[in-house]
């Protein structure tokens, strides 16, 4: 995305959801869409694996993703995806809405990776949350459909219950000789 003031390329400001021009210091605050996606603008040379429309530069919590404005899915690098999930879970405050099961038919879907065009792996996300995601291990990317990042971000791991306290044997037998 280019600066509206001078035309230079904008740079993200840390992990914040906005950008700044390194030349004229102009700020750009993208409009946030569903799932916390902020459309940055400008298309990328890849097409959406679901609807084949061009993907666009976008950001979620300051992390770069590629977004489809038609179906509202997004493509992220594995490391970026993990950071986004962790941020969303940290913000959710431990409040988890009731988990709804995913539709098993989602597991039958086969998408082609927008980067290498080979088949992506379709599977449940194994780190908690009821969502089916598509991954390409060759390109190290993840595709999420609209709403899936919200489902994963709302997941709260069950808190372990405190173990039952059992006093050490030495304290039980101290009075016996």
Can you summarize the main beta sheet?
7 strands, antiparallel
Number of strands: 10
Straight-line distance between termini: 81 Å
**Domains counted in the coordinates: how many?**
2
Would you tell me the structural class of the helices and strands?
alpha+beta
Which radius of gyration do the C-alpha atoms yield? 22 Å
Whole-number mean pLDDT: 84
Order of helices and strands: EEEEEEEHEEEHH
Low-confidence stretches are none
* Outline type: globular
Could you please describe the fold and organization of this structure?
The chain is of the alpha+beta class. It has 2 domains: 1-30, no CATH class; 36-155, no CATH class. It contains 3 helices and 10 strands, in the order E-E-E-E-E-E-E-H-E-E-E-H-H. It has helices at residues 78-91, 148-154, 169-172, and strands at 11-12, 19-20, 27-28, 37-47, 54-60, 63-67, 74-77, 121-124, 132-136, 141-144. The strands form 2 sheets. Strands 4-5-6-7-10-9-8 form a 7-stranded antiparallel beta sheet, covered by helices on one side. Strands 1-2-3 form a 3-stranded antiparallel beta sheet, with no helix packed on it. A hairpin with a 6-residue loop joins strand 1 (11-12) and strand 2 (19-20). Helix 1 (78-91) packs across helix 2. The mean pLDDT is 84.
């Amino acid at each position: 995305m280019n600066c509206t003031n001078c035309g230079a390329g904008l740079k993200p400001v840390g992990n914040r959801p906005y950008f700044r021009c390194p030349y004229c210091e102009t700020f750009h605050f993208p409009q946030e869409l569903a799932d916390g996606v902020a459309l940055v603008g400008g298309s990328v040379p890849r097409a959406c694996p679901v609807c084949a429309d061009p993907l666009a530069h976008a950001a979620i919590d300051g992390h770069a993703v590629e977004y489809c404005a038609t179906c509202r899915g997004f493509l992220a690098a594995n490391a970026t995806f993990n950071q986004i999930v962790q941020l969303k879970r940290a913000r959710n405050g431990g409040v988890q809405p009731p988990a709804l099961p995913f539709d098993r038919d989602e597991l039958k879907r086969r998408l082609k990776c927008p980067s290498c065009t080979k088949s992506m792996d379709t599977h449940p996300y194994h780190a908690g949350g009821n969502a089916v995601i598509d991954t390409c291990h060759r390109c190290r990317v993840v595709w999420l459909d609209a709403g899936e990042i919200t489902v994963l971000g709302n997941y709260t791991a069950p808190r372990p219950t405190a173990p039952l306290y059992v006093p050490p044997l030495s304290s039980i037998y101290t009075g016996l000789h």
